[in-house]
Amino acid sequence: MLEILGLKYPITSIFLFQKKPLKSLLLEKKVLENSDLVLATTKIDQKRFEKKGAKKVIEITNAFKEIWPKAEKKPNQTFTLLYAGGLESDRNPSILWEVLKDLSLEKIDFRIEFCGNISNEVILELKDKNLFTKCQFFGYLSLEKTQEKMSGADLLILTNFFDIAGEGIIPGKLFEYLASGKPIVSVGYPNTEVEEILAKVGLGKHFYQQKKELKTYLLQRIQNPNLDLKVNESELLKYRRKEISWALKHELIQLLQPKD
User: Fold this and answer.
1) Strand pairing partners for 207?
2) Residue 107: helix, strand or coil by DSSP?
3) Which site in 134, 143, 197, 220 is 20 to 30 Å from 243, CA atoms measured?
4) The domain 80-236 belongs to what CATH superfamily?
5) What whole-number distance in Å separates Cα of residue 224 and Cα of residue 219?
6) Element (H, E) at 47
7) Higher pLDDT, 74 or 55
8) Does the pLDDT of residue 19 top 90, yes or no?
9) Who contacts 201 (Cβ-Cβ below 8 Å, separation ≥6)?
């Protein structure tokens, strides 16, 4: 019988698993070594599982269903940045708020919309940087309403952890962001797969502590909201569920082939 293991995270390596009882380490090792195929959601995790003794590991990322229809551009509206989903303090993009504060002091007009639960720490920082009056908080919305808000935004905000914990994580919302076709500004730990995906697809840029470069990017988007993106459609389509499912199907067929 074929045994397949799907791990969203390496359970004994991630930040949420601070204590590593020997029992858990041994269980992870046993499961990895006895699985015919292990599915990892990032390249980093793929390498981790291979080092831990997995026989065969492949990367199967999250995906989007289809590319959304292009939203109609609305002239003369206030430039809108939008964050979709929950935002806890560990992923608070302070450098982004710092740059937006500077732009606000320079009389650059914009607003920030949040669809989801935002931590008190984030809200306090927005107030501290005099950005709170530029914010709208919608709370959790239905998928349809969230997509509607995303379609009306000019720039989508993506955040990740700012330490090594963010190295092997691809936030699931990235794929819905990609499907929307909207420009993305991503902030978090550097040299990650998120940064690689954005560069290949051409739908945005990732920043860590590069305040000057981040400000330049935001100014470019705010001053030219209708500036067309150089999207690599063939790279974008690789993250469609159809393509991801086909890749997994191909691997399963190979595993099920009779051995000589």
Assistant:
1) 187
2) coil
3) 143
4) Glycogen Phosphorylase B; (3.40.50.2000)
5) 8
6) helix 43-51
7) 55
8) no
9) 178, 231, 232, 235, 236, 239
Reduce the DSSP state of residue 39 to 3 states and report it. Answer: strand
Q: Which residues of 105-118 are buried (b: 16+ CB within 10 A; e: fewer)?
A: eeeeebbbbbbbeb
Round to whole Å and give the CA distance between 168 and 188: 12
- The amino acid at 228: D
Domain parsing of the chain, residue ranges = 4-61+240-256, 80-236
Q: Is the separation of the CB atoms in 64 and 175 below 8 Å? A: yes
Report which of 166, 240, 259, 249 is spatially closest to residue 201, judged by C-alpha positions: 240
- Rounded distance between C-alpha atoms, residue 195 and residue 190, angstroms: 7
pLDDT digits (tens, 9 = 90+) for 220-238: 999 998 888 899 999 999 9
Cα–Cα distance for residue pair 238/135, rounded to 1 Å:
34
Give the CA dihedral 150, 221, 64, 194, nearest 10 degrees: -130
Per-residue confidence (pLDDT) for residue 23, from 0 to 100: 64
The single-letter code of the amino acid at 107 is: K
Helix (H) or strand (E) holding 196: helix 193-201
Burial 57-96 (b: 16+ CB within 10 A, else e): bebbbbbbeebbeeeeeeeeeebbbbbbbebeeebbbebb
The pLDDT of residue 13: 53
pLDDT computed for residue 70 by the predictor: 80
Per-residue pLDDT at 165: 78
Query: In this prediction, what percent of the chain has a pLDDT beyond 70?
Result: 88
Query: pLDDT tens, 171-210?
Result: 999 999 999 999 999 999 999 999 999 999 999 999 999 9
Task: Give the model's pLDDT for residue 4.
Answer: 61
